[in-house]
């Protein structure tokens, strides 16, 4: 395996390296923006599905927690790698397909990076509404640049006040992370406490005070009125969009190469983050719906997020002052989510470049150990997404990519067991959890095929286009820049199982059958579950 020093791992572009400067608690706080993601779509899911929405969140975060054990095992195999589960999974798939491995990394990045744009846009909206009021002329000003009807009806690229203020927010987050992981973790610890404590209060106080009403939670029947094909499709659509938030604490293992003790810290970080997410994603939706009822959650301000802070204040019995505190908390929650996303997604780009999947310039780190080239790329991409007129569409396309990544990486758990069976595993998941992970991979394939229909017919098509962009990107890096050879550091990492030889494929035809079955499940689900 690639040698590791206290300074960090080597950068393929020269310059600095990522530094071994944090422990599992720091990684936990770096992932602490994930619980706040529940606020991004809690209203949208309730408006789409109806009464079962609280159960969707509980089921989704349970899926995410079970999947985390697979990711914890494969992360431990590569203590010198950064970038998260997709990077560790790519090391399993590269023996069987040169393109599947970078596709996994690419899909993970496409899934995570839009948090910057969506969070920045929502935060900007809160600031503008608070300062000027919802009906102010400044909130209506915009210049349309490009019509994107070919992707989704009514979608445009535009400049407005929200995109401008959102850009400023992203630049501030960039500056906060420019000085490396250690300082960023300290900042996120403070902000994380300011967010998690109010979220826990919102989740617990209504339950303890008896304000969560059973009639607001039952009957568990979709908004369509029955558990027929339409109702089941709506439910699957809710699970589809919830996965983007509820699975996301796996970002806690994006920092493996920056852990002081990766063998111990990796599993602790992801399990601790998972436990907190299980609590938040259970309590907050339960209390939210139990107090407001589906009718209350269908209000425009709840669906688009602009009135969530006021609703939360009412849930805990607060007046105007508490409402203002909740607005500040919500802004901090959005900033925290942006910080978590920028830290994780930029490291995915960085390690993807070091391993030979993505353009070489992305593997530059500054003297503080921050992957600045990847961070600038993240920022530039999201400045474009900020100009999109429909953030929910961006989220839905992003989640298609996320479910593809999850499918591939859950199967990488058993692939690593076969190809690298004799490798030392600092933490080894019980075999039953690998089987469960493989089963959930196909559940995610069903959600991908069925759920995308719920959020617009252009969703799955747009996701396929976005995913296909990796083909020219990888082809240029591998065949033009690297002349058809992978970097030595990546090949050295493959020796975790005893062989750098890519032709050694102990799993035989099983990975290809798995891929074919996954594609078949997506197609069948897409045809069966339609509105």
Automatic annotation (TrEMBL):
Membrane-traversing stretches: 27-48, 54-72, 109-137, 157-177, 189-214, 234-255, 267-288, 308-338, 383-405, 432-455, 462-480, 509-529
GO terms under cellular component: plasma membrane
Topology in membrane: Multi-pass membrane protein
InterPro entries for the chain: AA/rel_permease1, APC_superfamily
Broad class of where this protein is predominantly found: membrane
GO molecular-function term, one example from the UniProt record: transmembrane transporter activity
Keywords: Cell membrane, Membrane, Transmembrane, Transmembrane helix
Superkingdom per UniProt: Bacteria
Keyword Transmembrane: yes
Subcellular location, record wording: Cell membrane
PANTHER family: AMINO ACID TRANSPORTER-RELATED, INNER MEMBRANE TRANSPORT PROTEIN YBAT
Name by which UniProt lists this protein: Amino acid transporter
Lineage: Bacteria, Pseudomonadati, Pseudomonadota, Alphaproteobacteria, Rhodobacterales
């Amino acid at each position: 395996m690639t040698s590791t020093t206290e300074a960090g791992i080597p950068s393929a572009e020269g310059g600095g390296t990522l530094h071994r400067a944090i422990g599992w608690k720091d990684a936990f706080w770096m992932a602490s923006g994930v619980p706040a993601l529940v606020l991004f779509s809690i209203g949208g899911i309730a408006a789409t599905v109806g009464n079962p929405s609280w159960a969707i969140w509980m089921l989704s975060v349970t899926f995410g927690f079970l999947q985390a054990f697979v990711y914890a095992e494969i992360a431990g195999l590569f203590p010198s790698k950064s970038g998260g589960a997709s990077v560790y999974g790519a090391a399993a798939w590269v023996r069987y397909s040169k393109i599947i491995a970078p596709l996994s990394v690419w899909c993970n990045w496409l899934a995570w990076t839009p948090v910057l744009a969506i969070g920045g846009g929502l935060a900007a909206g809160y600031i503008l509404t608070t300062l000027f009021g919802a009906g102010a002329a400044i909130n209506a000003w915009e210049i349309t640049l490009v019509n994107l009807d070919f992707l989704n009806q009514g979608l445009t690229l535009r400049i407005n006040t929200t995109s401008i203020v959102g850009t400023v927010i992203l630049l501030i987050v960039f500056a906060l992370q420019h000085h490396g992981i250690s300082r960023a973790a300290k900042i996120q610890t403070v902000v994380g406490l300011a967010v998690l404590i109010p979220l826990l209060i919102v989740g617990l106080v209504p339950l303890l005070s008896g304000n969560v009403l059973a009639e607001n939670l039952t009957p568990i029947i979709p908004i369509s009125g029955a558990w027929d094909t339409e109702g089941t499709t709506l439910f699957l659509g809710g699970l589809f969009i919830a996965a983007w938030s509820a699975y996301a604490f796996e970002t806690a293992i994006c920092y493996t190469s920056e852990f002081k003790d990766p063998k111990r810290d990796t599993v602790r970080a992801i399990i601790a983050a998972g436990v907190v997410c299980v609590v938040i994603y259970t309590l907050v939706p339960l209390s939210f719906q139990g107090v407001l009822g589906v009718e209350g959650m269908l209000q425009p301000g709840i669906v688009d997020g602009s009135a969530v802070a006021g609703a939360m204040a009412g849930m805990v019995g607060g007046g105007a002052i508490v409402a203002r505190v909740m607005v500040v908390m919500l802004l901090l929650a959005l900033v925290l989510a942006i910080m978590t996303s920028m830290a994780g997604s930029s490291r995915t780009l960085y390690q993807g470049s070091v391993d030979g999947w993505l353009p070489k310039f992305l593997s530059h780190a500054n003297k503080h150990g921050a992957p600045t080239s990847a961070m600038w790329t993240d920022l530039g991409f999201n400045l474009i997404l900020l100009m999109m007129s429909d953030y929910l569409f961006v989220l839905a396309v992003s989640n298609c990519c996320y479910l593809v990544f999850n499918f591939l990486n859950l199967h990488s758990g058993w692939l690593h067991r076969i190809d690298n069976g004799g490798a030392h595993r600092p933490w080894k998941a019980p075999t039953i959890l690998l089987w469960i992970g493989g089963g959930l991979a196909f559940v995610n394939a069903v959600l991908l095929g069925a759920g995308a229909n719920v959020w617009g017919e252009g969703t799955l098509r747009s996701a396929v286009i976005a995913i296909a962009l990796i083909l020219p990107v990888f082809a240029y890096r591998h065949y033009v820049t690297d002349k058809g050879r992978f970097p030595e550091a990546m090949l050295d990492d493959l020796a975790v199982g005893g062989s750098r030889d890519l032709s050694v494929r102990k799993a035989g035809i099983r990975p290809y059958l798995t891929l074919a079955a996954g594609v078949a499940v997506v197609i069948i689900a897409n045809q069966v579950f339609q509105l």
